[in-house]
Design brief:
104 residues; mainly alpha; 5 helices; 0% strand; binds flavin-adenine dinucleotide
């Protein structure tokens, strides 16, 4: 299972295709660690969970910033929100962030 069959996100955050591309890299990681391809795939789903949880955290953080949402807010929300805002702002104002350090 990969892509939307694993987890579907709100399309407004544009995460679905990235997830669909990252999920197939998870079995490679498992197989490199010696997983038996004929055995049940718990190790694969443990890897996929990391990818899904990271994307989910980003989109729920943005959901919590909606003006009509009143919480509950998770521990560390204010700090995470501030970091996310600064990263988003830098992505459109800072050439180093936009182009990557390799071009500088
Ligand atoms: C309106 C909208 C906007 C989006 N915008 C973005 C965006 O900006 N950025 C982003 O990253 N993601 C976006 N997404 C999400 C993204 O499109 C999906 O996450 C991504 O396409 C999932 O890929 P997938 O291969 O898992 O599924 P899909 O792309 O849905 O592919 C599944 C394929 O299986 C086929 N299929 C289904 N059943 C069968 C069957 N029984 N036999 C044979 N074939 C079958 C379907 O026809 C389809 O072609 C958006 C989604 C929507 C709905």
């Amino acid at each position: 299972m990969v892509g939307d069959a694993v987890a579907g996100f709100n399309p407004v955050y544009g995460q679905g295709m990235t997830g669909a591309l990252l999920h197939p890299s998870c079995p490679a990681g498992c197989l490199r660690k010696g997983a038996d391809p004929r055995a049940p795939a718990q190790a694969y789903f443990a890897h996929v969970k990391v990818v899904v949880d990271a994307a989910w955290e980003v989109s729920t953080l943005a959901d919590l910033a909606q003006p009509h949402v009143t919480g509950p807010y998770p521990l560390g929300y204010v700090l995470a929100r501030r970091m996310a805002d600064r990263t988003a702002r830098a992505s459109v104002t800072d050439p180093w962030c936009t182009n990557g350090s390799s071009t500088w």
